[in-house]
Amino acid sequence: MSSCPARIRPAQATDAAAIVALLQPYVPAGIVLPRSEDEVRAASGDFLVAEADGRAVGAVALRDYGGYLVEIRSLVVHPDQAGKGLGSALVTAAVDLARERGARRVFALTLRPQLFERLGFLLVERDLFPQKVWNDCSTCPKRERCDEVAVAMDLGPSTRWRPRPSDSERDPGRG
Ligand SMILES: CC(C)(COP(=O)(O)OP(=O)(O)OC[C@H]1O[C@@H](n2cnc3c(N)ncnc32)[C@H](O)[C@@H]1OP(=O)(O)O)[C@@H](O)C(=O)NCCC(=O)NCCS
Question: According to DSSP H, which parts of the chain are helical?
Answer without folding.
Answer: 16-23, 37-42, 86-100, 113-118, 130-135
